[in-house]
Amino acid sequence: PDRFALLRPPPPSDDEQLEGAESADDEQVPELVPCESQPSNLDMTKWHGMGVPEPIMRALAELGYEAPTQIQAMTLPAAIHGKKDILGAAETGSGKTLAFGIPILSGIMELKQRNDDSGIRKAPKVKGAQGPVEEAPPTKDNHELTPPPEELDYVSGASDEESDNEHDPEAKQRPLYAVVLTPTRELAVQVKNHLVSAAKYTGINVAAIFGGLSVAKQERVLRQCPEIVVATPGRLWELYAQGNSHLSKIENVSFLCIDETDRMVEKGHFEELRSLLKVLNADEERKKLRQNFVFSATLTLVHDLPEHMQKRNLAKRPKFVKQTVDQKIESLIEELGISQPKIVDITSSQQTAQTLTESRLLCAIDEKDYYLYYFVQRHPGRTIVFCNSIDCVKRLATLFGLLDCNPLPLHANMIQKQRLKNLERFRDNPIGLLIATDVAARGLDIPNVEHVIHYQVPRTSENYVHRSGRTARANKHGITVMFMEPGEVKAYVRLHKTLERTEDLPLFPISERFLGAVKERVNLARELDKEELKLRRTQSEEGWMKKHAEEMDMIIDGYNDESGSDQDEDAFIIERRRNRLHVDTVRAQLSALLSRPIFPKGFSFKYPTSTGQLVEGTDIASSDSRSAVETMKAAIEDMKLAKQQRNKRKRKV
């Protein structure tokens, strides 16, 4: 407990400003004002006292960042003035990227001005924290957050391309000042783009290095000697092990940031990260000079192991002891080589954003497709559907493609260019549908995602928090719906317990009268998918046999023998034509159904309360004008009213 200070945000105040690193722990967080547009004369006074250099301030003003977010206000003074190692826990969409990006850029500017790459700290300091653990009073989280950039370039930008710098001898002498590690390729691109935007007037070069793209191209990028490298551990370690000249400087970096740290240091994941840490921490004196940044939305959340892993551990160790928050943080500090930790935790007790509406939907396993199609049609908007497996993503992408929902799949087995292309298409489509595994759960900042659907209950509470964090970002409203079949109840209860929830998630309202039309369409799409697959397999097998028979000058039995081969071949052709005709018929029936709307303008519905009683919903004058969030909030209010009336009747009895 005496090694680091655990801070929770104090209530925001309009009258006090942060004035420096020495008093940063006791100051009130300035009010955070949203900026809907990007005027040329923004009032940037709320950044004063943070230590942000003028070139970075200029870039922030152009981006429309009129005030720091809460995590930025809590960490920037200590990081810039006090040179502290920052361990930050903040809700998704709260501005964590610039919370570490601004101090790194500021520090590099300072080192370049001093013409020194030995480290941002002038001398090693004694390991340990200054002062006991501090617990600030909880906040109601009623502040406004400065929104992130609305447009992100997911494809590597100009700073990743070949330039004249590649043959510039001075460029080859540039040190490698900072390394930022991320768990996914998409997050690496996103972080790189944020840093490039903030570094616009600093002259600092940033590059993203990750798997799935050409090694040769990324070696050309590294030949430009960028001062900041944002990378995934696997590709970074691969290029370092191959002896890349610029990455050979990694042992002497002045800044190290690990984004979504808790996931990356879990046992069994990112073994290359452990190899990199051994290299980074080999020199004790250099390790003390390095400034570290560790950020995650679930840094202070400790979850139970999934059931299958618990059984495996119990077989080896009869007593499985759950790790505490302090133990988790101590382990991170030790493993990452952190010497001067300052921990800032601004996550709310429920771990999800205050503007997020959470709900669940109970159904049988074979009914999930019905309810997903119902939701997509009833509440059009930018929607992410999360699945636990790649096979599930592929199946849903095919099924909803047949239903004309234009789904965009995203999973680890896709080539990187297609993953980035699908993300860009999803970002550009206001009613886009992204069906993804947890590869899209962490860190991705896709603007204006309205809905997150957990098609399967997440395996851990951390996955639930990160998935849900793709919506309700930057103080915007969003909704999550967890589809739950009877076999997933145990996982739901375990998740509920870890998040310390005292009440069940409310049930999402469904109008049963429209499910008949929904089921008819989905069933036809399922049949069409099945028949098309059968037809493709038949054609594939026939083509394979004929091709290889011709190559080997073989006669295929049943086609060319004299005992009725013509009749057999005719029967085969007739059967194939019959199958194709059936496929065409089903496709025509489905097209006819899809041409008609399911939901007429203006309808009412009934939904079940927690007791199973049906409650009449409010009539909707124009159903397509009501969002899923508004529908759910109205349902919650009606359920509360029904509960009050039920309690009154009980008291009378």
From TrEMBL:
* MF GO annotations: ATP binding; hydrolase activity; RNA binding; RNA helicase activity
Principal localization?
nucleus
Q: What domain of life?
A: Eukaryota
Question: Does the record bear Zinc-finger in its keywords?
Answer: no
Which reaction is this enzyme known to catalyze?
ATP + H2O = ADP + phosphate + H(+)
Domain Helicase C-terminal intervals? 368-516
Q: How does it assemble?
A: Interacts with FADD. Interacts with RIPK1; this interaction disrupts RLR signaling activation of IFN-dependent transcription factor IRF7. Interacts with NIP7. Interacts with EP300; this interaction prevents TP53 acetylation mediated by EP300.
Provide the protein name: ATP-dependent RNA helicase
